[in-house]
Structure formats: structure tokens, C-alpha cells
Amino acid sequence: MKGPYQVYFERARVPIVAVDGLGRIRESNPAFHAALGRSAAELRGRPAEGLLAPGEREAQWPYWRLLATGRLDAYRTWIRLVRGDGSVIVARVSASVEPRRNGLPWRAVAVLDEVAPEAPALGRLQSEVLRLVAAGASNQEIARRLYITRQAVDYHLARLRAKFGADSRSALVGRAFVLGVFVHGMWPPTLCPVRPDDRAGPGGSYSTPRN
Q1: Please, which residues bridge with residue 19 across strands?
Q2: Alpha-carbon distance 77 to 196, whole Å?
Q3: What is the DSSP letter of 113?
Q4: pTM (predicted TM-score)
Q5: Which of 3, 126, 135, 151 stands 20 to 30 A from 174 (CA)?
Q6: Looking at the 3D structure of the chain, how many domains does it have?
Q7: Which range of residues forms the domain containing residue 64?
Q8: In terms of domains, do 82 and 141 share one?
């Protein structure tokens, strides 16, 4: 980034990264370094796809190709990224193209609107217990509706609190919503049919490709 936007780029609290036409990281701001747990030196010149969690490259490539060829101006999606310590985070990314004077794409600029640790994997029964807790059901109600014992509900709740690092029911539900386990804006709570890295994602959108 050059000129009057340099200060904003450096001081912005949201993570921002610029990737050139060959997919290499050109610039990244301190907020991006903190989110990814990597230094500027580690990131500069590195292929951006090296930050993607397994399976993400195949999912993202069609849209990156449209950006690189100028057929897509911008798009927004959820993506899984690998931090320097090997942990995975989920981020909602808004990517847009900065064109050259001749109109051809020069580089893509991506802003991570939301960043959170990847939600832990849940089995079917644990998912249903969590959904009913989020809806306000008591342990007795959960046991009755899922045809399991009250002790089994207590066990699954303890496991869920441990997985989410929550010390109470309210903290458990709050973290589940933040990590994208539930569909945003729906009540009663509805489990996401696909994890938050779904290409359309909660609130995700794409601009229309140009011919």
C-alpha cells in the first residue's frame, strides 16, 4: 500500500492482505500477522495458498481464477486458514481486485471481516444436545426429546463445555454462535448444514462474473 492509505493499512484493526497475480503475498498488515500468528517476513512473497487449510484450495480456486482474469470484481466467503502454530481459524473474507490503469487485474486485496477458532467437530447426538441447550431446553427436556437418560445429557454437556472451553451453559451457547455452529439470524437455533467454510457461508455472497 502506498500514499494516503498506508497509515490506514498499518493501523487498521481488521486483518488485510494483498496478493499479486501469481498468488504471492505482497503486503500484509499487523492485524493480519496477529490473526495468522506469523511475521511480515514469514508472509512476504509466500504463496497465499500455503495458508489454506486442507481442502480449501480446491474450493477457492474457481473464484480466485475469476478474480485473476478480471471476470469477477469481488466476492465474500468463509475460509479456513492455518496459523503459524498449526491451529486452524475460520475467517469471513471479503476479496476484491485492484486493477491496473489498463483495466487488467493487478492484485487482490482481502479483508478478514471476522476471525474465530475453528469450531470443534461434533457428533450427531452432541449437536442435537447443543441445539436444544441453545433453544433453552432443560436437561430433563433434552433427555425426553432425545430418548436418552438425564445422566447421558449431563455427560454430553460436560463434553461440550470441554470442547468449547466454556464454564457454563450460556458461555457454551455463546461460543457456539460465535464459531458459526448455528445458522445466523434464525430462531429457534438451527445447526448449519455445512460448516462455516461453506462457500456461500452465513451471509456470504459473490459478485456476478462479467462476460
Answers
A1: 25, 108
A2: 9
A3: E
A4: 0.62
A5: 151
A6: 2
A7: 5-118
A8: no
